[in-house]
Amino acid sequence: xxxxxxxxxxxxxxxxxxxxxxxxxxxxxxxxxxxxxxxxxxxxxxxxxxxxxxxxxxxxxxxxxxxxxxxxxxxxxxxxxxxxxxxxxxxxxxxxxxxxxxxxxxxxxxxxxxxxxxxxxxxxxxxxxxxxxxxxxxxxxxxxxxxxxxxxxxxxxxxxxxxxxxxxxxxxxxxxxxxxxxxxxxxxxxxxxxxxxxxxxxxxxxxxxxxxxxxxxxxxxxxxxxxxxxxxxxxxxxxxxxxxxxxxxxxxxxxxxxxxxxxxxxxxxxxxxxxxxxxxxxxxxxxxxxxxxxxxxxxxxxxxxxxxxxxxxxxxxxxxxxxxxxxxxxxxxxxxxxxxxxxxxxxxxxxxxxxxxxxxxxxxxxxxxxxxxxxxxxxxxxxxxxxxxxxxxxxxxxxxxxxxxxxxxxxxxxxxxxxxxxxxxxxxxxxxxxxxxxxxxxxxxxxxxxxxxxxxxxxxxxxxxxxxxxxxxxxxxxxxxxxxxxxxxxxxxxxxxxxxxxxxxxxxxxxxxxxxxxxxxxxxxxxxxxxxxxxxxxxxxxxxxxxxxxxxxxxxxxxxxxxxxxxxxxxxxxxxxxxxxxxxxxx
Amino acid sequence: xxxxxxxxxxxxxxxxxxxxxxxxxxxxxxxxxxxxxxxxxxxxxxxxxxxxxxxxxxxxxxxxxxxxxxxxxxxxxxxxxxxxxxxxxxxxxxxxxxxxxxxxxxxxxxxxxxxxxxxxxxxxxxxxxxxxxxxxxxxxxxxxxxxxxxxxxxxxxxxxxxxxxxxxxxxxxxxxxxxxxxxxxxxxxxxxxxxxxxxxxxxxxxxxxxxxxxxxxxxxxxxxxxxxxxxxxxxxxxxxxxxxxxxxxxxxxxxxxxxxxxxxxxxxxxxxxxxxxxxxxxxxxxxxxxxxxxxxxxxxxxxxxxxxxxxxxxxxxxxxxxx
Lengths: 587, 323
Fold this sequence. Notes:
Shape of chain B: globular
Oligomer: heterodimer
Low-confidence stretches of chain B: none
CATH topology of the domain at 98-287 in chain B: MetI-like fold
CATH class of the domain at 98-287 in chain B: Mainly Alpha
Mean pLDDT of chain B: 85
Low-confidence stretches of chain A: 1-21
CATH topology of the largest domain in chain A: D-Maltodextrin-Binding Protein, domain 2
Distance between the termini of chain B: 7 Å
């Protein structure tokens, strides 16, 4: 123990010397397109937090509120460029990928210190990956990404500042995934399996009543105080490794505070009262706040077309319990016909107050790396054409009430499952209901809690559903959603494997589904970026033509920010590796 | 009296057990499980879900989950784990209990101080204009939900340019040490919850006081006292009001469980760090041991409140005897 400690001290000293020799802080430049300018130090910035964090240990609980705080206290090996969403160095200064795409070697940034002054090194990275990210017992770990084709990814330390991952097969999205927050080994060692702890013990680290000094990170801020149910206060991490274009150490702010406010209306009230400096708002709240801004209130309401965010879609259950409906739903002619009865413009205008645009097919239009323009395939809103298309597929007979009859003679009547506790789903559902009625398709609204939408979708007990999945920079990260047979591809559950982890049942797929299935498998291991782009282009076109789901709109992101602060960049929430807060300064 | 209290206390044990079985059953009848909220998260694989199910003991049969929980309480005073917070339920509740008790007591006190005199006033001035107006206002405040009053007060403060629109402190005072300025800041915030939550109680209590005083005022002994030439003030305060207060004692006992669940919506709207929203979350997320513990706590408070009210009645009313 003693010998170990002395050895550790010696190595720390030598590391510190080494670090001083080639300390290389990251310079934040080239963000002019986002309106980022040089700022000055000082000030407190106050943000809302939707509820108390459930723990202070990121990998111990799955909790968005903790995610928001953790994002300010921890960093990953790589991060997003705030403007282009390209992957850039973070705690890793550089990396190499072997020509066969299987070996990733990360050279760690020299001179990085934890917020308590200890040096950061490869041991921290190994400790975090082994005990948290790759640990199946860690609640918020991500072990699934470290088994490729049934074989494990291995991680090894090359030297004190170099880490190497060896993959069983190429995985081009692997780099993008390494935005996981790295945790300090020296503070968490007793929860690690190396010290004899059980794999699940890690979840118990840093409960909300832990001493503030225990929570140590490399991020721009460090924990100062947590007052249960009321506030989380962070202060500047003096050892942060980023500097601005002029070389001034970031973050600019002295303090970052999160007020715990559960009710969205109460958040707005606190923002208007000046107790919060920034707030993400919805399209419904936009007119009121914008009006106040125009009338001279001391804040700005900003719109941005960001990549992240969840575009809603409507899906039909190919395996619906009613066989006649299932047959109609799996017929692409039906889905194309009904798309013409989806009034996207009206939804964008009245549900989103105009603060949304046309959606992509699985890829956000802002995603320059992968999006292909499929706007034309979205078609035009045309009820007459929709009616003609339904007639053409043999649904021309109608009953006395004007409802089309299925081949068996029952009326074409569909239950639409949607979330009632949402600002957007209920009005969207009624618009769909009224337009569908005009083409002779009766829609019955079936409201449930939004939090139950996914579970209901996966249970198969629905006919038509309004739901949304988030966008990501690389389609590979959304594979379980869009690859037929994936665990979230719930509108057609027949191809899903009987047991998790088995291969999908390709025999149950339609030809176009089979093609999409192959595209995802190929793109997952294709090292060439241009070949991947071509594959995903083909997928988006197949999606647009065959409409496994019918995308409705891509909402814009709206934020309101006090005029006292500069360098505001919209921040959706917990996106590891996307954090503009260190650049914010008080004017 | 002591044996009576003991007997009542012992009687609570089977009652509480029965309540706990019912609560557990009702929580389990809710569709879904605590883990449902994670299924959409791309970080959560089916394997992680299976691991979590095992860690939380959700793979055990329901009766085993229940018995383990009860055994923990009886043998170790351990009320189980919060699934969400990964911490023992006891300490989580303890953290939030302080402000909850403080706010509940304060609003209770304020509503009593206002309601009892108003009730007496409206009773002895029955059918007069001022009393009618007071009664009318009472009806309105009874009919207005506390969260609506809270929202209206927030809107009012905002429109007047104020900044204390929720919570108990301004941001900079939340984690500051106690000082004169902090107390003033607390007072500036406190009036909104006290008015919003207290007002609802006022109307009910006021009408209760009025009704029971009217009852008493027509009793023979009051008439006798008047006839014997006792001063009206003596009759009212010394005899009538003292007797009329009895039903209020029972009411006070019954209001104890309101400590936990009485002000959930107002607490959410006003952003108060009390237990109510914590219970609400636990129920929504199926964080079952937190919900169970709070519901049991609530039931215990109800039983204790009843007992205390009965004991207080015995002390206040010479007609009530337990022996």
